[in-house]
Design brief:
Layout: H1 2-22, H2 25-31, H3 39-70, H4 89-94, H5 98-109, H6 118-133, H7 137-163, H8 171-194, H9 197-207, H10 211-238
Helix pairs in contact: 1-3, 2-3, 3-8, 6-7, 7-8, 8-9, 8-10
Length: 244
């Protein structure tokens, strides 16, 4: 099992190296050369930058976890679910840097009231997380955008539970549409914090504001909704919930 874990890490590492050599998205992002790109190219570059962040953290954390397992120490798996297999904002953060998430839950989230006060305590939590990473406007904007975008999901979840919407025959389609918006929200927030920053996001929005940009946004939304249905099928087949 440990050897398999190490081989999987090696495959991911080699794949990441190949990706960086073939796709120069980080250099494009750092140089801020967006002017001549189409809306779809801009969106793709931004999304690939998020993938780079996810992959490099996955490689670092799994490398050290592998050697911990070799030494007989069972430590927390920090990345438990692929970034592209996430639809829920809450589920996304439960599976990103799990050890840090558990620390926040134990020492900040629960003392502030837990799920009973999540509508306001999440603003304190994500402000803390943003400052913990770095004191910058982009990261503060990232933390507050995460909270702002998480509100519709929380409200929809409580409304669905209260009205028992999950009994409706078309509930799965409603959930897929809601998760489609969630994916957009998460991409925007993380692009601001970790890829293009506030100024870069303004450029991206201006590029996506025309008819070509609107076509890209609507087309990708359809892709996201279809992707959510595929995720539902996968989770039902293998007995996995969306929050894991």
């Amino acid at each position: 099992v440990i050897l398999t874990y190490g081989l999987r890490w090696l495959i991911i590492f080699i794949g990441f190296e190949a990706f960086l050599h073939l796709c120069h998205v980080v250099a494009i992002k750092n140089a801020n050369i967006w002017d001549n790109f189409t809306p779809l190219q801009i969106f793709t570059i931004g999304f690939y930058n998020l993938k780079v962040i996810w992959l490099k953290l996955l490689i670092i954390w799994r490398f050290f976890r592998f050697w911990s397992l070799v030494d007989g120490v069972e430590c927390v798996e920090n990345m438990t679910r692929c970034m592209s297999h996430q639809n829920s904002c809450q589920g996304f953060w439960k599976n990103w840097h799990v050890s840090f998430n558990q620390w926040i839950i134990r020492y900040i989230y629960i003392p502030l009231g837990g799920s009973k006060t999540i509508m306001w305590n999440m603003w304190i939590i994500f402000t803390f997380v943003a400052v913990w990473h770095d004191r910058s406007l982009s990261l503060l904007a990232w933390g507050w955008l995460i909270c702002l975008f998480m509100l519709p999901e929380l409200i929809a979840g409580k409304t669905s539970e209260k009205l028992k919407l999950n009994a409706l025959p078309y509930y799965k389609h409603l959930k897929a549409i809601g998760y489609g918006f969630n994916i957009y929200f998460m991409i925007v927030a993380n692009l601001v914090g970790y890829a293009v920053g506030v100024e870069g996001m303004k450029i991206m929005i201006s590029k996506l504001s025309g008819w070509d940009g609107l076509l890209v946004v609507c087309s990708l939304f359809g892709v996201f909704v279809a992707k959510c249905h595929l995720d539902f099928y996968w989770d039902e087949k293998y007995g996995v919930t969306n929050d894991k």
